[in-house]
Design goal:
heterodimer, A: alpha/beta, 9-stranded mixed beta sheet, two-stranded antiparallel sheet, B: 58 residues, 34% helix
Chain lengths: 235, 58
């Protein structure tokens, strides 16, 4: 599977994702500079974490208007896979590829810690290696991860099964105490209706090797690779 | 409570309708995130050009 990792000025998790795709999973991976006008034939496009364009104005707002994002939109419309991690999720929201918006964390502090996530859906390329309702641990590192949308829009998101990850306690129970940033409905990650564009605040690429103490995140990226291989085999 | 942002933007047009159209477009496209923010536009005649280049916070 060929993957492209977008590099905005200010991206800082681009090499981490590239490393996992290329060296841990042994896949072809390239970087896509923000001024690129195509995704160079990649099957998966990753928008990595960081502070694209310095996050001036709002996180992800300026990056959403960059040339490469027009190509990413085309790729998504054609059914191509897109994964936005942390700042990448913020960019997807600002670009309108996913619904909703981010506000400052509820306590207004930048949070850098592990969280527990409940996997709400396993029929996606991104989650096929997880079990329904499985609780996984991944790190977060963000100041604006407080997901919000109107009540009607949130109901619609839930009804359409677009909530993929939720912040929970280690035993899988939902509570304000284990929702680190105050996100509506404890939402940590969502997917578009078609199921090919995923945005999530936690960082799977930072927990993809046991040498780092945790490999829960590898399952996500390995699932994407598996699904691409499966699609290739059925063609 | 959450404080928003305010922008002072100097336009080259002297047509109020055109100015308002431009500003609303800027707000919709970039300056405001209308999912969680509202915006308001207020037009004021520009000061003479010579005064405008100076320090905005003297």
């Amino acid at each position: 599977m060929k993957s492209g990792v977008v590099v905005f000025p200010g991206s800082n998790c681009d090499h981490d994702v590239y490393h996992v795709l290329k060296h841990v999973l042994g896949q072809e991976a390239v970087f896509l500079w923000h001024q690129e006008e195509t995704v160079k034939g990649c099957e998966l496009v990753v928008l990595p974490g960081g502070f694209a364009y310095g996050d001036y104005l709002r996180a992800g707002a300026l990056a959403a208007l960059s040339p490469v994002m027009a190509a990413v939109k085309k790729h998504a419309e054609a059914g191509g896979l897109v994964l936005g991690i942390c700042n990448g999720f913020q960019v997807l929201l600002e670009a309108g590829l996913l619904p909703g918006a981010m506000r400052r964390n509820k306590d207004l502090r930048f949070l850098c810690r592990d969280v527990y996530l409940k996997v709400e859906r396993t029929d996606l390329p991104f989650t096929r290696r997880f079990k329904q309702g499985q609780v996984v641990r991944m790190p977060i590192a963000h100041g604006e991860g407080n997901y919000e949308d109107g009540p009607a829009a949130l109901d619609q998101l839930e009804a359409a099964g677009q909530v993929v990850f939720r912040y929970v306690a280690p035993d899988g129970a939902r509570s304000d105490e284990w929702n680190p940033n105050g996100s509506a409905r404890a939402i940590a990650g969502i997917v578009n209706v078609r199921g090919n564009v995923l945005g999530m605040m936690p960082h799977p690429e930072r927990c993809a090797e046991m040498v780092l103490g945790n490999a829960d995140g590898l399952e996500l990226l390995a699932g994407v690779v598996e699904s691409a291989v499966a699609v290739g085999a059925s063609r | 409570m959450r404080a928003g942002k305010s922008f002072d933007i100097r336009l080259s047009t002297d047509d109020p309708a055109e100015a308002e159209r431009l500003l609303r477009r800027m707000c919709e496209k970039l300056l405001a995130n209308t999912v969680v923010e509202e915006y308001a536009v207020e037009l004021t005649p520009a000061a003479p050009a010579s005064a405008a280049v100076g320090d905005p916070f003297p």
